[in-house]
């Protein structure tokens, strides 16, 4: 069992057609045919969208993505058109809304990894590989890889697991040319972002991008960086000062929430059919503080 603990009812706004409820975002189309992406304060963990929200999280994700799109502008074109709140939309949409180019999304989660963690670590322990790529012996939880690797995954529906796939499988699914472009762009953007994060005392262990094609005259054209980028929801950031391979690293992602959910205090059994319980106020507050800290450390700007 998984999915939404409480399925949200999308807000209707005149002039906007609601397209889709994602785990975190509501997608609409405006009258110009552009995509209106509104990041909620929802939080997902263990394939569930939790019944508690993290105040301001959607704003942090949106503002951090915008900051990164700027840092990356010379490397990769992105989907942002503006941050204008559509007329008639709730005031709460301010800061969490992106008007974007509506792209033909490539159905591949483009993951880059520079360090061993998460599903990469699990596969490495089994087979000394990640997404079928052979790695040297002797790597531990949190080890830096000899060089960053592209480890794609197929995109799963809400409540389902993304599944790591080989590069060859991606090439079969989207064509060799698109696969090569995805890998090149993913590693280029990861390399830049890792360097930027490092200057700020953070390790970018891994991250996930989504790309789409901007269609012109019905023909697929430019490959454009879409979705959110380099946020704590899509990336593992570790404080460099505390990095120590051989154990789980403290991180700016949802580790705090995951730890509480799997602790005795939550009373929740992950393996059961039961949905996860609401988060206690202190877990919500600590998680909010982590997201804000990630924003402040990366951008060097206080959260307003
Ligand atoms: N420019 C774009 N054009 C079309 N779809 C997009 C664009 N940018 C992001 N998306 C899609 O919008 C959705 C974002 O909502 P989100 O809640 O993050 O979804 P998910 O549950 O898939 O993570 C994703 O399905 C993503 O593929
Ligand atoms: Mg998403």
Proportion of β residues? Answer: 25-35%
Globular, elongated, flat, extended or rod-shaped: what is the shape?
globular
Number of helices: 6
N→C terminal distance: 38 Å
Helix content: 25-40%
How many beta-strand elements?
18
Mean pLDDT over the residues: 94
Give the uncertain stretches in residue-range form: none
Main sheet overview:
8 strands, antiparallel
InterPro entries: SAICAR_synt/ADE2_N, SAICAR_synth, SAICAR_synthetase_CS
Enzyme class: ligase
Pfam family, one: SAICAR_synt
Family: Belongs to the SAICAR synthetase family.
Gist?
With about 300 residues, this protein is α+β, with helices and mostly antiparallel strands. The chain has 6 helices and 18 strands. The chain is globular, with a radius of gyration of 19 Å.
